[in-house]
Batch of 2 targets.
Target 1
Amino acid sequence: VNCQVCEKQPATFHLTEIGEGGKTVRHLCEECAGRLGLSSGNPVPSMLATLFEGTKELAATTQRCPECGISFEEFRAKGRLGCPKDYEVFAKELSPLLEKIHGGSGKHAGRVPAGAGRDTAREDALLRLRRELARAVREEKYEEAARLRDEIRQAEDALKGVS
Amino acid sequence: MDLSELDTPSGEWLRGVGAETDVVLSSRVRLARNLAGFPFATKALEDQKGEILSRVRAAVDRWKQPGRRFFVDVSAAPAIESRLLVERHLVSRELVLAKGPRGAVFGADERVSLMVNEEDHLRLQAIHSGLALDAAFEEAYAVDRELERSIPFAVSPSWGYLTACPTNVGTGMRASVMLHLPALVYTKQMEKVFQACARTSLAVRGFYGEGTMAQGDFYQISNQVTLGVSEQDILHTLGRMLPTILEYERELRRHLMKDKSKLRLEDKAYRALAVLRAARTIASEEAMELLSAVRLGVVLGILSAPSLPSVNELFVLIQPAHVQKLAGKELEADERDQRRAALLRERFG
């Protein structure tokens, strides 16, 4: 069977969709499946897309994460957050979404790492230092890059000491 | 990676040992983790991904557990090798299709595997044969605890383990069972399972997980909720639902073994085996379907041979990359179908 989209490559990806209208089977090649967001990488964003329905007001914020630079709009489009800090930065926008996905209290009830004394400030500092390091390397400012690497190493050691 | 270095031609989870193996093929627990102080994989730069990869490797190298471990640099691996790992359920398609430094680590028995720089920095899984969710959970957590000794993970008191996608945040845990449900499929009752699972917030997926089709009448059932519940809650939710599904499948099997339908079921199993023994060319979908009928025939005692483990492992060994690996070269679809038929004739001959 050839791919139903490009009609060239052999279909290696067979998707059975079970919806209200019954079962449909689509035969696609890996490439087209990937492009259509049907290979395993992408169903989550499409699932998120349905979760986003009726939450248009959430896009109102134009704020960006100070650490990774992502906007809520960008998250909506890709379905993936940019860094751990986003959960704080977009707490208000994420809250109804988390409730839709997980129901219930929306408060973590599982285990935490042994001896977790979390040093949020240092973790944020690490995100910032790594961003600055990337910029310094891009701009070929090698002395600054070397200094930043030292700072990162120190912050890392301190972080390990905590957890 | 050389397959001959692995313990067996297929993962231990296909051994057909453990509880409820007439219906439950395997049990799996996977955990999503991210390193604190790094952007998530979607935003991480190449250098950062490289650093994450080498750190995880270093942490793994420090483990005291015995047994050989394999490391695969997925960014450098030939396509066929990566596909082989996908077919063995060791890595996801998503990891193969991702960009930049990324890799996989797994033991020779393929029970525990780790993906680095997939959607999250770390995806760690334990798969066991049969119904063994608690054992898979314990094993996954032992590895998690080992890793957290040297790697600080991104966690928050309110949201738990922080993940790139909010569908995994909290415990970061997905527990699943791979069920063989031919009787439900033959009698067109799967819709009821879908509905029951939807009501209890469980997801139903195909043989290769998210967005893949249900091959060989295998369905993977897993928790959707990861936040606001404990790891034990997740195991309980699955555990509560499972007996209903297993009993339903078994009841239909008993029903199919009665009166006139018994002859039809026997006919189906014998014909399936006959085709697998005789075919000169066979596509993987057809082979999966026939193997499913043979598997049912074996567990119901209609067929005295082959053994359950040998049928189980064929569900993986007949996949396209495996057929090509066995042939030692890339093959066109028709050649693959011929080689697959030859493999099956040899196994069932």
Target 2
Amino acid sequence: MQQNMKTGLALLASALVIAAGALVALRLMAPLSPNPSLDNVNVLVIDGSTRINLTLSQLVQMNPIKGNASYQNQLGNWRDYGTYEGVRLSTILETVGTVSAYDVVRVNATDAYSQLYSYDNLYPNATFQAIQGDLILAYAYNGSTPTDWESGPRIAFLPSDEGYSNDDANQTTPSAWYPPGSSGGSRWVYWVATIELLHVHPLEGSVNVFVMDGATQTNLTLPQLLQMNPIEANARFQNQAGNWRNYGTYEGVRLSTIIETVGTMGADDAVRVNATDAYSQLYSYDNLYPNATFYALQGDLILAYAYNGSAPPTWPDGPRIVFLPPDESYNNTDASQTTPPAWFPYSASGRCVRNVVTIELLHGMYPPAPTRSVPIANEPRDSRRSLIPSHFSPPKADLVLSEWRGRLDAVTLDAERV
Amino acid sequence: MNSPIAEYHLQTRDLVTISVLGALGGALSTFVGYLGQLLNTVLGTPFGAGQFLSGLHVFWIVLATGLLRKPGVASATGLLKGVVEFFTGSTHGLVVVAVSLIQGLIVEAGSYSFRYRDSLPLYCIVGGFASASNVVVFQLLYFSGAPILLLLLLVVLAFSSGIIFSGYFGKVTIDLILSTNIVRGSRLPRFAAEAQSASRPRRLDPYRISAVIFLSVLAFGAGLYAVFIWRPVLDPFGCEVTGAVSRPYHFNYSAFASAQVTVEAELIGSVTYVPPRNYTGVPLTVVLAYASPTSGATTLRVLASDGYSVLFPLSDVLANPEIILVIENGLRLVAKNWSGAYWVEKVTTLVIS
């Protein structure tokens, strides 16, 4: 019995040691990936045919900066807080060429992972500087260089609050480069192998609108919109409280031109525009092809991709539906006189859908059937009223939610049945 | 003296012991799972560290076996524990019954081979093998393609856990309970002397103190979990939508059934893989749109009944109508293009903040 007890306690002690070792190993293996070779630490900087190999010793001599920082991972946890030392990415790129506002930088890791960075990331203005800080290629972490630091060399942001959060990343990264599942940490590329300067339009991909007429569908990006006879004008619009909002220069393409890429709109058709947050608005033939009366009230109806020269993501509301009346002012009366009552969201700004993702041509939707109105007088515009009316009670759902088409978050409300 | 066959019969008191321990083990399994997630979070590992606690699942089987020392006790306790786990809402569904039964059979086989000897090394070894078996069974059922080195590490960790929690703490708990005379009478007559010996009052030694501490921590932790973390699934087909919204409400799936969509999604987890297949459910965009998130809201936390939770950037969820709530063993979040960790089962609450 005594011997049994001794054997058992020996087993217990061994199990404790082995379990501790296994836990440490699990921690070290997360994520389980092959280690890159840490010998001959160097980074290849590329601008077209110009290629420069920068070694660690050369990087150290390039006006290094140092700062404390950490980042958030997908789960919102803060990771790898410490002191990062490195060289601004802009300084490194200037060794091979000149970075213009229309360029994009791609950073590739040894395991083929890559990330894109904009001019604003490299040369942050005051706003970006406050959010993200300096963008550097870090070659040292807490004093350890890549020969000892297994994640280096690594991209790092050095914000003044020492924390590069998921929100920071979201605000300073074009949405097309920041898909679902991204995090602050995903912008911190480790095991950096090459840094490429790409001379492409910087906003390509940051505007992506899905246009469809039944089964006919097309995707429009900014370069395509730019080739579609864009127009430019100043405008502003009133919110529910009657205040004027968002005066400035809008650049975009007539909604009618966009619709014509997928189909032909008739007088009894309607166009539904959906936003990323499921907000939507309907527009009539007269809105898209205004006669003299409508034109005097609303002007051209466009999908704006730029506001005061800024496109998304710098312009957070874009792409946006905008009316460009001759007097540069789209007031609530203009909106009510050019919108069927059943579609009117009680303000001109409510007609200007922001963050547009889909545009649908719906046949036979005009004129809308008479309906009871949905009182929303006290609801601020910012709440981005959803298509589901406030009086909708789930247990007695008499709402028709249909036509859910794959990735589109369009909801059809049959107001007749409400 | 009873006949040899009769002495192996399970008496009413044995059946009560099996029922109580099996039910306790099953009911506390969600707590053990929660502790595992907590351990992963603390250690910063995406998965796997929870295997350090897998021995707590086998603890109850070893406890029943050691207390009664009769054939069939381990298998019956394992089966009952699995069934209770299943009915109390295990996220593994029916698979958990098989896993628990196999653990019971392993303890049974080991104990039978050594004639139900009351031995610490025996409990450690059978506990270790039974605990490690869960990794193997899950791999056989959901082959994930995880590296073999990683799987071996998990097996080693689970085996160690079995030694610690099922073996050592199982044995000290058995001795502690025997000292209270609760089950002495039901033991096989040939083990009665041992039981009597174990039941003699002794002063508290480190061995018994460790049993008291272990049971106290387990009970206290389970109590905290039950009060502050665990949420009963009152409506298996609904959840609360709350936080920074204009209209907090109780989402009921049937009321939103007309908004159902079908998406094809592939679950790529750390150790679980489910090939692409169709899921039909209500997009989270609709569920959230009805609640109308306030303009400053930035995140969505999805909570499950066992305390598990994940955090989404709200903008990503609102921009993706392919993240859906489906009816599958309760309310399940299918997060297409997100890692398996984001596919939450038994959703109880959506918190926007």
